[in-house]
Design brief:
125 residues, mainly alpha, 6 helices
Length: 125
């Protein structure tokens, strides 16, 4: 029997579901469970050459955008020095980080900084 090989998007989905939390509403603070549609979007971004695609305007789910930003800020995608391909309100990003991530992050006004990797969101700030 063959083991299923995990794609980059599978790894990113697993990371999001383990580290990220629902930022607002009655389920605030609970672990994220991405919907099939959100998983499809993550696969569209990371299993294809997304560099030519503009997800800034097509990604309407601000919570998903925040999870992707965290992936690039302090997760496995931070190692590639690629800026996140989406935008979200820094407050939503902050509240989407679970306790395991908050120990590595700090807020400087409207900027979130990963202490360990020295990455910032928004990067231009």
């Amino acid at each position: 029997m063959h083991k299923k090989f995990k794609t980059r998007s599978d790894e990113n989905i697993s990371w999001i579901e383990f580290h990220c939390r629902i930022p607002f509403g009655p389920d605030r603070g609970r672990r994220v469970r991405l919907t099939d549609e959100e998983k499809f979007t993550v696969r569209q971004i990371y299993d294809r050459e997304a560099k030519d695609l503009n997800f800034r305007s097509s990604l309407e789910d601000e919570n998903l955008a925040a999870y992707i930003i965290l992936l690039h800020l302090c997760g496995p995608m931070a190692l590639g020095n690629d800026p996140p391909m989406v935008e979200a309100d820094p407050w939503t990003v902050w509240h989407s980080a679970g306790v395991t991530l908050h120990q590595f992050l700090k807020r400087e006004g409207g900027v979130i900084v990963c202490r360990r990797l020295r990455t910032r969101y928004p990067a231009a700030a």
